[in-house]
Specification:
Blueprint lengths: L1 H19 L3 E8 L29 H12 L4 E7 L19 H8 L3 E3 L9 H12 L6 E3 L3 E2 L8 H8 L3 E2 L1 E6 L2 E9 L1 H5 L8 E2 L2 H14 L4 E7 L3 E2 L5 E2 L1 H8 L5 E4 L10 E3 L2 E4 L7 E10 L2 E11 L8 H19 L30 H16 L3
Parallel strand pairs: 1-2, 2-3, 3-4, 4-6, 8-10, 10-13, 13-15
Antiparallel strand pairs: 1-16, 5-9, 7-8, 11-12, 14-15, 16-17
Length: about 400
């Protein structure tokens, strides 16, 4: 009887101790599908990151850097900053990456911890992707790169240079980052649809994402992770019945143990998280127009999802001057290495029209007069220069 009373008393003390622990805050900032939009989105000529309330552009790496720095300085916060793939490809900035890697070191300076490879990172092929990573590392520290479900060819040697980056640890399948005593486990997957639109990823193939994710979760749990985060370049689709589907929704339904899925690939803008089987799924749209902020509480009893916020990256945010200066230096290099041979300069108009170019980014591209303008220009050039 006395022993039973003693055991019960100890249990009460333990319960009170756990209950009394102050819940700590884990913040995950995330982006996806940046597509090398270093200077914001539309029109770039108006982008003025070092001043506020004077332009209508969205995004821009200098502004994103300021947001990350602001979160880093918040008291009592453990911050992780990640990107869910397709961070490269889409502007002139990507053209020099294989020979003079710039964007990955820049993202590290901005505060990114982890990025995953999407389909567009394969646009130049596996060898060029290896060149991009190696060239980037030679120019400074880079975020940890993840590509979890890649399968390398046992027969072809054309993916060997990319495979070697896994051996060297420059690209990993899983990654644990411990910060302020919190062990965050990360893994990434590239989905079926993304793989299908990455023809130059061959001979690399990709394991089914649910199968790989289950193995990754098991591994990360065995290594004592407090939170497990999946960077999934797979995506979401809004179905005809108004419900969300897609590969990331199915991943949450099939695989237990994931605490957060940060989605990419489909350029889906979610102003609130999609919760499936208790797993929040988030995605910020595209081009760095928004940055997502996920908050978890962490205590002795585990983690608890608290809140989500989609933060517009607009000209209310004063950009980081160091990041802006580095981008300006890159623009000078682009002029020197790429544009000057065509008599052009970065940031200078190539031509002007005497009428308004009308384009709706949300659709109705068939009604835009930009298409006919480009078609007429090509027709004129070919006929004038007889080049075909």
């Amino acid at each position: 009887m006395n022993r039973s009373f003693f055991v019960a008393l100890i249990s009460v003390f333990i319960s009170l101790s756990v209950y009394g622990q102050k819940e700590r805050k884990i913040v995950i900032l995330h982006t996806n599908d940046l597509h090398s939009r270093l200077e914001g989105f539309a029109p770039e000529s108006m982008y003025s990151p070092l001043s506020v309330n004077d332009d209508k552009t969205l995004g821009g790496f200098a502004r994103i850097a300021s947001l990350i720095e602001s979160e880093k300085s918040a008291d009592g916060t453990t911050l992780f900053t990640v990107d869910a793939g397709d961070f490269l490809m889409g502007t002139l900035f990507h053209t020099l990456e294989a020979s003079a890697g710039f964007q990955l070191p820049l993202m590290k300076k901005m505060g990114y911890d982890v990025v995953c490879i999407g389909n567009h990172e394969f646009d130049f092929g596996t060898d060029k992707l290896a060149d991009i990573v190696n060239s980037s590392v030679s120019n400074g520290p880079i975020p940890q790169i993840l590509l979890g479900n890649a399968i390398f060819s046992p027969k072809s040697t054309s993916d060997d240079r990319l495979e070697n980056l896994f051996t060297e640890g420059l690209i990993k399948r899983t990654y644990i980052l411990e910060r302020n005593g919190i062990r965050a486990g990360f893994f990434s997957v590239l989905g079926k649809n993304a793989a299908e639109v990455a023809p130059y990823s061959e001979p690399v193939t990709f394991q089914k994402i649910s199968k790989y994710a289950a193995a990754a979760v098991k591994e990360l749990k065995s290594r004592g992770c407090d939170i497990i985060i999946c960077l999934s370049h797979s995506g979401l689709t809004l179905q005809k019945d108004g419900q969300w589907g897609g590969e990331d929704a199915e991943l949450a339904r099939k695989v237990r143990g994931i605490d957060l899925i940060i989605s990419g690939h489909t350029h889906t803008l979610l102003d609130k998280p999609l919760i499936i089987n208790g797993v929040p799924i988030v995605q910020t749209g595209e081009y760095g127009k928004n940055i997502g902020k996920v908050i978890f509480g962490f205590s002795g009893s585990g983690i608890r999802f608290q809140s989500y916020e989609l933060i517009p990256v607009d000209d209310r945010i004063q950009g980081n001057s160091q990041i802006d200066s580095l981008i300006n230096l890159r623009k000078t290099l682009l002029t020197e290495k790429v544009l000057s041979g065509f008599g052009m300069q970065y940031g200078k108009p190539v031509f002007e029209t005497d009428y308004l170019i009308d384009i709706d980014q949300q659709g109705n591209l068939d009604e835009s007069n930009l298409g006919p303008l480009v078609a007429d220009a090509i027709y004129y050039y070919i006929n004038r220069h007889n080049s075909m």
